Amino acid sequence: MNEDDWKPLGQREIRRQRLKSFSRKIDLRACHTAICSCSGVFATSEIEPDTITLATRPNVRIFNPNGTLLSEDGWKSGRIVYMFFAVDLELLNIVTEDGKLLQFDLGMKLLTSFSVSSEQILEAETFRTENTLGLVILTMNGNFSILPNYENSLKRLDIGPIMQDVPDCWTVISSKNRNYILSATKANFYTVAVDGTSRVEVHPINISKTFNKLMQLTSSLCGNYCAGTTDSGIQLILSSKTLEVITELNTAAKIKSPPISAALLTQRSESLGPVAALLWTEFLVLLDTDKNWAIYDLESFSAILEEKDGIRIIGSRFQDFLTSVSESTKQASSTTGAGAMLVDGYEMIAANNERGEEIIAVLRDENSPECTLVDAIEQCISAATHEFDPALQKKYLKAASFGLVLTEDFDPNVFANTNRIMRVLNQLRSAPGLAISIDQFRELGPMGVVGRLQSRGLYQLCWTVMDYLQLERKFPNIKKDLLTSWARTLVRDCEEHEYDKVTRKISSKVDQLKCSVSFIDIAREASRSGKKELGLSLVDLETRFRPRVELLLEISPKGERALECALESRDPDLIYLCLLHIHAKRPKDEYSQVLKKYPAAAAQYAIYCKEHNKRMLEELQVSGNYLFIIFEHLSKDPTEHSLYLAMGHLSSAKEAKADLDRKIASLEGAERSLKMAGVDDNALVNIAIQKQILMVQKELEKTHQHLNLIGKPLKTTLEMLIPLDQAAADKIARELKFNEKFYTRMKAVFLASNAKYEELDKMLSKTKRNASLAPDQIIKIINDSGNKPEAEKWLPRCQGRTKVKAHINLKDFVQAATVAHQLGDFDLIAKCHKLAQQAGDTAQANEITSRYAS
Question: Which fold has domain 31-47+59-115?
Answer without folding.
Answer: Thrombin, subunit H (2.40.10)
